[in-house]
Design goal:
Distance between the termini: 18 Å
Mean pLDDT: 90
Number of helices: 4
Radius of gyration: 15 Å
Strand order of the largest sheet: 4-3-2-1-5
């Protein structure tokens, strides 16, 4: 599976090039289909497009904000020889800070609406309206 489609790369680069620090909504979710590792990515470094920023959870109970190498994600082969995959159905509803707070509460990245709403309330944040797919983008859903 291609981990970085052109439209996703463009959005990540735009976030990474922002003039001021911004609490971006995650653009993409990666996961290990044979393990517990998950990444919610918000930015790609314009000067180093192999470096991504987001919420990283290696499945050991301590998710953290940080950087990850795209080429390293592409090279990973987990149990059963499966590589990291892009979650085609991920629909982010909150800024990254809310996912980070929910992960702190849960000990892992979570998409539980109850936990995310609780984290949003703690941070005084609100859900965002999902971004429509770019014109001409293929929708993986039937």
């Amino acid at each position: 599976m291609d981990l970085m489609a052109d439209d996703i790369s463009e959005r990540l680069l735009a976030n990474g090039a922002a003039e001021r620090e911004t609490d971006h909504v995650p653009v993409i979710k990666y996961f290990d289909p044979s393990g517990a590792a998950t990444w919610l990515i918000t930015e790609m470094m314009p000067h180093e497009p192999d470096i991504l920023f987001g919420l990283c959870d290696l499945g050991m109970g301590h998710p953290e904000l940080g950087y990850v190498s795209l080429s390293e994600l592409q090279s990973v082969k987990g149990r059963l020889g499966l590589g990291i995959e892009r979650d085609l159905y991920f629909e982010p509803r909150y800024p990254l800070s809310v996912y980070a707070e929910a992960a702190r509460i849960s000990g892992r990245i979570t998409e539980s609406e109850t936990t995310l709403a609780r984290a949003a309330a703690v941070l005084g944040k609100h859900a965002v309206t999902p971004e429509p797919p770019p014109a001409g983008a293929d929708d993986p859903r039937p």
